[in-house]
Amino acid sequence: MIPDRTGFIVWVSDLKAARSLERFGTVHYMSRKLHYVVLYMNAERVDESLRQMSRLSYVRKVERSYRTEIPTEYSKDSEDKTRFYSL
Fold this sequence. Notes:
Blueprint lengths: L4 E8 L2 H4 L7 E6 L4 E7 L3 H9 L4 E6 L17 H4 L2
Antiparallel strand pairs: 1-3, 1-4, 2-3
Protein name: DUF2129 domain-containing protein
InterPro entries: DUF2129 (IPR016979)
Keywords: Cytoplasm
């Protein structure tokens, strides 16, 4: 059975130290330019992990990712207008 996963955006001040965030979950992406880490963790351990992460000196802010709430199934209610714009 696949566990429920929750995504988080962790804003950090030091990317070298941010590698240690792997102990909380799966690090999906690290932005070198904007200094953030996209992290996925099990939903059942979220409260405890957020408390421990916010205590770290290199973590500036932790935001929850709303990617799972975005609808990805679309319906085709209107007709296709692409054929009117082709040459």
